[in-house]
Specification:
The structure holds two protein chains of two kinds. Chain A is mostly helical. Helix content of chain A is 52%, strand content 6%. In chain A, a hairpin with a 2-residue loop joins β5 and β6. The two termini of chain B are 67 Å apart. The chains are: A mainly alpha, B mainly beta.
Chain lengths: 474, 1096
Amino acid sequence: MKTDFSLTGYLSEFLKGFLVLNIIAFSFISLTGCNKFVEVPSPITQIATTDVFNSDATATSSVVGTYSRMMSSSGFASGQGGSVTVLSGLSSDELTNFSTDASVVQFYKNALSPSNTTLGTNQWNEEFTYIYASNAILEGLASSNSVTDSIKKELEGEARFIRAFCNFYLVNLFGDIPIVTSTDYRVNGLLKRSPASQVYDSIISDLKIAQQQLASDYSVSGGERIRPNKWAATALLARIYLYLKNWTAAEDQATSVINNTVLYTLVPDLNSIFLKNSSEAIWQLMPVQSGQNTGEGYTFITTDYPQVATISPELFNAFEPNDQRKIDWIDSIIVSNQTFYYPFKYKVRASEIITEYSMVLRLAEQYLIRSEARAELNNLSGAADDLNAIRQRAGLPVTTAVDQPSILAAIQHERQMELFTEWGHRWLDLKRTGQATNVLAPVKGADWQSTDTLYPIPQGDISRDPNLTQNPGY
Amino acid sequence: MKLTAWEQFPYSVREAWKVMRLTTFFIFISALQLSAKSTAQKITLSSDGISMEQFFSQLKKQTGYSFLLEIGTVSPQQKIDVHVTKASLEEVLDQVLKPLSLSYSIDNRMVIIKKMALIPSLSVLDLPPFEINGHVTDSLGNPLAGASVTLKGSRTSVGTDIRGNFSMKADQDNIVLIISYTGYQTKTITVSKGENIKVVLSISNNILDQIQVIAYGTTSKRLNTGDVSTVTSQTIEEQPVTNPLAALEGRAPGLIITQTTGFSGGLFNVQIRGQNSIFNGNAPLYIIDGVPFTGTAINSQLVGAGINGGGSAFSNIDPSNIVSIDILKDADATAIYGTRGANGVILITTKKGKAGKSTFNLNAYTGVGEVTRTMPLLNTKQYLAMRHEAFANDGATPDPNTDFDLTTWDTTRNVNWEKVMIGNQAHFINAEASLSGGNANTQYMVGASYNRSTTVLPADFADQKIAGSISLNQTSSDRKFKLSFTGNYIIDNNNLPTTDPTSFANALPPDAPEPLTPDGKLNWANGTYTYNPYYFLFKPYQSNATNLISNLTLNYTILDGLEVKANMGYNRMQIDETAETPIASLNPAYGQTTGSTYFSSNAITSWIIEPQVEYKTQTKAGNFDFLAGLTFQENFTTGDIFSATGYTSDALLGNIGAAAQVTPYAITYAKYSYQSGFARINYNWKDKYIINLTGRRDGSSRFGPGNQFANFGAVGAAWLFTSEDWWKDLVPFISFGKLRASYGITGNDQIGDYQYLASWTPTVFPYQVAGLQPTQLANPDYGWETNKKSEIGMELGFLKDRILLSTSYFINRSSNQLILYTLAGITGFQYITQNSPATVQNSGVEFDLNITNVKGRDFSWRSEINLSIPKNELVSFPNLAESPYSDLWVIGKPLSISNSFHYTGVDPKTGLYVFDSKDPANPVYPDDLKAIKHTGPVYYGGFDNEFTYKNWHLDIFFQFVDQIFYNYLYYNFTQPGMLGNQPTYVLNRWQKPGDQASVEKYSQNYGDAYNAYLNVTTESDQQLGDASFIRLKNINFSYSFSGSWMKRMKMEGLSLYVSGQNLITITHYQGNDPENHSPYSLPPLKVLTVGFKCSF
């Protein structure tokens, strides 16, 4: 009798099956070698970064997207309650707070908590979002072969300008900050703070390149002054040099803007300065939401009991007699027998017809920059000329200051009166001139600490990035 | 560092696999050598008078085998005659040794020769082996290919070929053959030499032997190594439901289905064995006739979600056309689906034609439905008393400008708005017809059905469905080529209001005015009737859906047992929706005078191609089944929503062209490509030991380049211990016993498309030109969530399988969870989705008991009970405390916990709600979150009894769930005392100091009482309550006619039936219905229908 179990038979059966599987395994290998099938094109509802920089149009969209967001958010650049304009105004002596939002009250009381959400969202995250976009644009343009060279140059200039602009506010509000230059979150999420001097170096470097790359007119935006050009970069550079006390450079940059009288002249009528594309405007942001003009107009113009902020008594009382600005740029409302004064540089609260754009950089500041630079360089008459240009427009007599200290003091006073509730100028000026404690301690009383000049680094980032340190006093 | 799926295998498994691979390699090599040898082994020898010594040395030379001769068997000098040409070793040995009464055995290339044991009937030995030929068919004469034919008392077993033929060698007369085939009764026959055997197998009645659909094939419950539950067409047909998911509630262990609304077309939540993924999809993979089907409705979430909860894709599947639904649960059953198998798989098979004469089937029913359950509400007397008490408590008086219920309206009116709004009868009509038939080579079926369901609302809304189906099977006459085609198409027009009025029906004061003016317009009662409940009925929502699912399968048998196959499927589902706000619905107080409409259109198109090779072989060493295949699949989703405003006439609301302004609202677009290869090896040794290995390599476009592929696999094994010879004597009353175990890895890719892509999307507003903003960080290295499933199960049959008990215990661990990580703001983004080692464990025990209590000639009674006890646990979550989810979850607790204030009652002094907190009246979030309560089922199951007496048939099915869920307080912002009705639960309120009450004092303003009330309804454990229930889910009572008159009418069958759904609900739930446990959605309906079935 033969055996029941035939190894040969079993193996040959197994072999057949095994060979079949091997054929399949080969298909597998060829399959894994060819991944094309599982690579899908990007969806029409979003665009992959690489595709954004495949055409002039989409690349341009990536840049203007930042301006659109600046105006549609209610934060940093919006002129609304979360903007630098309002929050720094509250931190300084410009505005009296009427907001009941605890996170806004903290700005007014100079008692910011590192976990303050308004601070984190509107004064930190938002700027870094724009910096990320700029970095992505710079990376995208660098690796793109499809964008026309002239457009590429312009867009790179704008991206650098935005990055420098955001870094300027970050370094002034927070002191040392991380310098973010790439899009890799794994690298960026672990950055440490760089000294302010290095941040300024990178700002200057960006702006100098931007000066070279940007157009010297407003042709890219069809004549509207709503995208930064070469002169915007120059004007910001003048401000940077002023802050860095590089008086000669500050004078030079401001001069080159002031001398461009074809594009820029001081508007004689105080009520016309903030109109769209006014000849004083170096860079304005265009309102984007329908039915809205500027965020500043919407926020400051008060129609009932104030909800956000009003002009502080310190600012109101600082005007010299006959200062036309006190009449044209401040309005009031009486509610329950109480008079509230509010900023009225922008005249339109909300309207379908857009007449005003939000002013970011304007010529008057350049006069004041040059005036201060000249005063510091002991060119007192030159300084007085620039100062008087501003004073005369406000209906005031020429300055009576004659020596350097009094001219410098007059310039600081003039800056307060001319640039109030614009982009936190007062807050930054008090800090850079070392006057913050002198001026604010009497106003704010026990709330004021000398360490309040720097806002705290938001707690969320401190806990997520182990390399970030907190500012003193927090 | 992220591990690949392979690296996540335990070390030991990886090592074992390496060894296995090596071993396989060696077997492969030696098999090659052996097969080479076996050709060389053909022996040619021709010699008269050769000596035994010479003979064996020749053999050794030619074969390489050694020969051992037992002492005394042969003398070396013995002379023999040998004449063989190219014979096998066995043939030569047989020829030479048999006449010498010698036997031999071959062991490891060694031939041992010994004396043959004395066998009584020596004559048998003298018979030369003869061939037995036979033919196996089913009762309709269709050949059964692959049936197993075993010679009793031996290990000889052969399979039938594709024509159903077999042949085997036997060496004695009157042998006994055992013929078995999956799904058919095993037959034992005695055959004698020369007989032409025809075997007809009939379909098995034993549940264990019925065909069990599994991934890419079938097996039987008896031989299945995995865990699969099946719901058959009989169960589905007995239930008057329009969504097949509704028919599955309580029917399968491990499967939870919850109906979220009583409106037709509404959402059903489906979960197999708990929540695996913390943030991503937990829906099972659905496959209909081999075509993957999106389980998620493609309805626009904006347009219709207020009424249908988002909709159900399955309302576009005709339940009457389903033959079986199989729920695949463990790793063994699901791992072959790779990245898609983590949440279980539901396989739906539609009806196919059967060979035989053409049969026409007709089934029609009509019926009525009402909501299962509502809360008892205050009547006007109680309501007004509550309001006045609230004003008294607050020291206030009603304000004629706001408190219309007390000052303006007719306080003698007493309306039960629940009854008016959702207390009406819905009507159902359903009819389906099919024609099927065919012969052995061709079978066909065509079917059509119509269903109309109205609502319980006091207006004319209805859901109408028309479905058609075609099925065709063709087999070539040599039976080598098979073609199978199915096509299912449905048109569903659903007309509903845009908003579910349930919560308004609960909250409307009982003295509210008539909703309509005498001329049929909305009555705004001079601006006092803001929440006119008929307002919603004036705003219609319309959805028009079509769904085509078709499948073509081609099979070709190359050799016996070797089959190539291609499964090709196509699915397109499209839903167009409109939600209208007619001018007639506008409250004049708001000054709006034009109508508006949302238009939405969504579609998903998918195709799949799956070439496969299957090789089945029955050997002496057991049966092997090899399967390998490839999958190519693509899904394409598109959608858009437009808001059209400024209509000046209600008649034009459906016409987007007539709008004054059209604004694009949302555009969706996604493409998903998927390719993979899979393989399975099934080894079955004598139906005793079964091992099943599955593997899949998956690639998906949902992951970034370079990270698209991953490997998955499982091993399953079963031991049918009752097949052991010794068992039957040992424990005779256990007729079937199987121990099975499985372990494997599956994945979850329900994470949305394009998540890896650094992308930009349009800004909301242009800035001269369109703007773009970065919306997603480049994130190429995120991968699938992996789910490691392990399970052991025991299946027992007692008393000749009259009692079948199946128990299983499983542990599923889901890790590599995709979680939103918070990023430092300096990165430019707040979050990124990344894989995390966070782990969720689902474990549980499941029982399924099936008893044939009585089986007589006239009367039979069968019972089935299933029970599932699930446990969900968040095992780990790195940095949970620092994450945004720190208040949501607790390590070691289920994901479905509610972390809330602990409610301690009403303070007898103040009459206000108090809590277990530092300041009992004012708990602080999140410090006072102390009550961790588990929502969701503790256990659940179903209990079915089926009685048959002569022509009468009765089936009663109960569903039961033990659970805690949100009650009527959940996010209810109207506190007792305010304008708005309340359930009668609030009558037990605090009135004066010292009262022990369950409800705080009535109040009508936003004071302390309201704060306490908000703490209760938004943050406390008081908004959770017992939502356990036992429900008479289905009852079906039918009578089948018989008699000669039917023959005369040429009728094959006729039956009348009464069927009911959700008829009785036993619960303590405080709220409307414990199943959907929502104060905002319509409770499911109880339905009673009568109908008839006939066939010609």
